[in-house]
């Protein structure tokens, strides 16, 4: 997606205009107007096709975030490949041992900003899921909020900073702190 966040918007607007013009031209018996309406319909379909084919860096990072969450949930070894520092890899390993995510996390409120001429990115998001914590068992549905700092490296985007935020208040929490109270 490139000129709008939703590929359906331009296609729907052009399609609706095309249908209106086709019907107007058809009912008036004007072939030129009807042809122009079919042109608008074709343009709407083309806009949808082009818009869905273009993938931005922001969308690539969001896909990477979803893959990270899925790999973390299933405790896959490749989860560590998302992190760019040994410290973060150790922290991720500890978190995977400590927490079990029972159901797929609900990822919302994803906001990504790029800095340093596109070589760094700050990503804010919420991840809510039912979790179990080692030593406590199932602790129910837990809200969480994070800010990740990504760096573009030759091997792709890597996480170089993780900040856990309070789900409601604007304060930082320790990444492996027990709760957000």
Feature tags:
7-stranded antiparallel sheet; 2 domains; alpha+beta; 4 helices; 7 strands; elongated; Nuclear Transport Factor 2, Chain: A
Second-tier CATH architecture of the largest domain: Roll
Query: Could you say which overall geometry the principal axes of the C-alpha atoms support?
Result: elongated
How many beta-strand elements? 7
Strand content is: 25-35%
Overall CATH class of the largest domain: Alpha Beta
Number of helices: 4
Order of helices and strands: HHHHEEEEEEE
CATH-assigned fold name of the largest domain: Nuclear Transport Factor 2, Chain: A
In total, the number of domains comes to 2
Spans with pLDDT under 50 lasting ≥5 residues?
A: none
What value does the average pLDDT take?
Answer: 87
What does this protein structure show overall?
This protein is α+β, with helices and mostly antiparallel strands. The chain has 2 domains: 8-53; 57-173, Roll (Nuclear Transport Factor 2, Chain: A), CATH 3.10.450.240. The protein contains 4 helices and 7 strands; from the N terminus they run H-H-H-H-E-E-E-E-E-E-E. It has helices at 8-28, 31-53, 57-73, 86-98; strands at residues 99-101, 106-115, 120-133, 137-142, 145-153, 156-165, 172-173. Strands 1, 2, 3, 4, 5, 6 and 7 form a 7-stranded antiparallel β-sheet that branches. Helix 1 runs antiparallel to helix 2 (31-53). The protein is elongated, with a radius of gyration of 23 Å. The model has no long low-confidence stretch (mean pLDDT 87).
